[in-house]
Amino acid sequence: MIKVYSEIGPLKKVILKRPGKELLNLEPDMLEELLFDEIPYLAQAQEEHDAFAQIFRDNGTEVYYLEDLAGEAIKDASVKEEFIDEFIREAHVVDEREIKFLKDLLGELEGKELIERTMSGIRREELPKYEAVTLYDFLAKDDFFITKPMPNLYFTRDPFALMGSGVSLNKMWSDIRNRETIYGKYIFKYNKAFKDVPFYYDREEKFSIEGGDELVLSKDCLAIGISQRTSAKGLETFAKRALEIGEFKKVMAFVIPKKRAFMHLDTVFTMIDRDVFTVHPGIEGPLEVFEITKPGKDLHVKRIEQDLRTLLSNELGTDVKLIRCAGGNPIDSRREQWSDGSNTLAIKPGEVIVYDRNDVTNEILDKEGVKLHVMKSGELSRGRGGPRCMSMPVVREDI
User: Among 35, 389, 390, 392, which one carries the catalytic annotation?
Assistant: First the structure.
């Protein structure tokens, strides 16, 4: 069951992805392609992530792992074969020798072990030795991998987003990350716990949309960012489907700067309580925002030109307070926004998980009466995402 009608309702179930061997297959020349700035130390990243998961458990939240859910989804032999074929195709493996090797290698594995093998990346050095004959043979020897790793997977927020009683199975901005959505496809198609949920978006669509840009502002309204990673066309396609399903009445489209520091809407703007948000001061406004409704067959789009506080206050029917990242200091706010000072995750109203390194922002939140669960972040933060990025709520209680 999926039940997510807010960003702050008491969190009962959540999906995480524990960092795995995919981080061991990061190397400097691949960082830009794989959308990483640094290489996290795996053992420490796992310790930090395990502590993150324990915060949820200690506060009554049941933790699911992406790798377990996907492993359960492919238990049937025919589904497993379908998954392997699709994985190889989406990894752009075209050489017959390599395809046979991968089918043999992966075919011997089951469930979670198979899933984690596909996530980690498969090195060319694992291939049996052969004499180069074709042009491809000679040139491929310079490639380290047959299939490349997926180090961004511990940011479970992006490949799919759960809202209302349904799922947005996303089309990712970059081809290298779009491979990550295959796990959501099989979970929501074959895992008994999630079968037959409504889809607000599908990974086969043409236009990009990512979960970091998808926020549940209220039981009636979704807030979606138009960003570096989410396109206007993708948002319109999503809005049409979401409003047709009828669980939400409107979609608010927020235009944010299209650059890496403002990667997604949730890197600059998250909800802490019924009337409290943390924000990066660079988006306070006046903003370019569009209200999207569907009164009939077609979408109706209306431009709204207001500052962020006024807009949110009007939408939520309350006097909203904005807490600036690092208090809005021009140096501190940029530094802490870079390490996701605004990317908090509410586990209940007024109670959030935050990174320890954002000490200026954390002190301000504490003084404002926000209850903080502070987690270590020395390695996890190297991937450029915070507590909200690393989690996908499945069930929240109503507020």
Answer: 389
